[in-house]
Write a structure and sequence with these properties.
- By secondary structure, this protein is α/β, with parallel strands linked by helices.
- It is built from 3 helices and 4 strands.
- A 4-stranded parallel β-sheet has the order 3-2-1-4, covered by helices on one side.
- Helix 1 links the parallel strand 1 and strand 2.
- The longest helix has 11 residues.
- The model has no long low-confidence stretch (mean pLDDT 89).
């Protein structure tokens, strides 16, 4: 099964990515390259066109949406 994990390089996402891969899933970790770890696909959720293009390319069978802003002040900019 192909799984997409948004926020795949975040605190929780990287653990989920590792667990799913251990269980035999084909996993695509998506997120911002500037975050704390590597991603398979760079993704900016504010850009609907790039999200559609990524979904057309990756074609996930399941999606785990873990992308979030954990620290509120930067989210206001």
């Amino acid at each position: 099964m192909r799984a997409l994990v948004t926020g795949g390089n975040g605190f929780v996402g990287r653990h989920l990515v590792a667990l799913l891969r251990q269980r035999g899933y084909e996993v695509v970790a998506a997120g911002r390259a500037s975050e704390s770890g590597p991603v398979d696909v760079e993704l900016e959720l504010n850009d609907a066109q790039s999200v559609r293009a990524m979904l057309d390319t990756v074609r996930p069978q399941t999606i785990y949406h873990l992308a979030a802003v954990a620290f509120v002040p930067p989210a206001r900019t």
